[in-house]
Amino acid sequence: MIEDDPTIALLETSLLSAMQMDVRHGENGEDGFRQLLDWHPDLVVLDLNLPDMTGLDIIRRINEARLARRPEIIVVTGDKDSKMPFEALRLGANDLIRKPFEHEEFNLRVNAVLSNLDYQRAVEDLQQKMKGDL
Length: 134
Description:
mainly alpha
């Protein structure tokens, strides 16, 4: 999770931990991106407005890093009128949550993104098995 607001960070950490997920927290873009490269998480919950860079900058850096497995990305923003959330989706974010959010919405969106990831991995495994059988 990359979030500069300590209250939101605590809330998101609590929600993710309650879902039995291991959570690491980056307080700014640089710290969060460095942790992402070291840890290779399945999911990044990303605030779009950070003190040192935007969430868009981080998504671009993830795209340019050519990681072996790109993490799923859920962007979180309090901006109501900004075009930035739509640009995040265009750049490859998997979902968008607007602040303030309901806890249930957060949980449902995280579960949906991770369920889709599980499905993609199952398909990839089957494709690899089929290639091996040929």
